[in-house]
Amino acid sequence: MTTVLAAIDATPSAQAVLGTAVAIADLFDATTVALHVREKGLAVPHEVSSATGIELREISGTPVDQIVAAARDQDVAALVLGARGARGGPQPAGHTALEVVTRVPKPVVVVPPHAQAPKQLARILVPLDGSGESSRALEATIELAHRRELEILVLHVYSAATVPAFADHEPHATWQWDQEFLTRHVATPHERVSLLRRLGVPADDIASVARQATADIVVLAWSQRLGSGRANVVSETLARSSIPVLLLPVFRRRGRGNGSCSAPYFAACGLSA
Question: What is the Cα–Cα distance from 7 to 4, expressed in whole angstroms?
Fold first, then answer.
């Protein structure tokens, strides 16, 4: 049985995490299972899961280790957890969330504590930096969203050095550039696919564009490595986003006849079919 695991705690954000997991499970044709790791005897109210008829598994131990171990089960297609317990303005994701996302080699959805869980996914925001690597990493996600007839918003943020030189900024020239970008970086048919262009810095613009476009979720591919100079876009998006962020780990796997290739976990495991 394919499942989406919702790691919930005893904070008010548990409901948003659970609701988001249900929406993600629908995308994967999976079943939602809630997981609560007890610390110091604190228990999560059963009403959080029982109200929706979702199975609740309770275990004891260190939250990070227990969540990572449960997520590694072969039946788990994706993990959903809260960014942090406290509400407020832009602030870094909590220690538990950061530890988990760097250790679970599967799709992980991080839900802000103030997020409103979507009843179902209808519109996703997919930032693409224009490189072949990011396009390949997100290809399976875009294909899955297309099959489910979701609206796909492709965001490309260019700098002053990379802004296209449109001929007199004519609408036709702009349209041609958009079509060329989509053809080059989006392999699926382009109905229900829109390209949003911004001039600036991706780490600054993704969360604000997501709000303006009323997207249900942001999808980012990343290397699962945090630290100085690494994953700045991921870190800033997690800190600023008001909607869930789906992180897809990109890894190297052996291909047939041509060495290795990059692919997100669920595409390599056939979970996008």
Answer: 10
| Residue whose tokens read 């990493």 | 137
CATH number at residue 40: 3.40.50.620
Give the pair of three-digit tokens for residue 74.
Answer: 């072969």
Tell me which residue range forms the domain holding 29: 3-111
Let me know whether 131 and 260 are in one domain.
yes
Compute the distance between CA of residue 11 and CA of residue 39 in angstroms, rounded to an integer.
13
| 156-187: b (≥16 Cβ within 10 Å) or e | bbeeeeeeeeeeeeeeeeeeebbeebbeebbe
To the nearest whole percent, how much of the chain has pLDDT over 70? 78
Give the whole-angstrom CA distance, residue 269 versus residue 266. 5
Q: For 237-265, what is the mean pLDDT?
A: 66
Angle, alpha carbons 196-202-205 (nearest 5°): 65
Tokens in use for 163? 């802004």
Q: Give residue 225's pLDDT.
A: 85
Which of the listed residues 78, 111, 144 is the one where a domain comes to its end?
111
Q: pLDDT digit string (tens) for 210-222?
A: 999 999 999 999 8
DSSP letter at 200 equals: S
Beta bridge partners of 126: 154
**What's the CA gap between 271 and 29, in Å, rounded?**
10
Residue 47, pLDDT score: 61
AA identity, residue 30: A
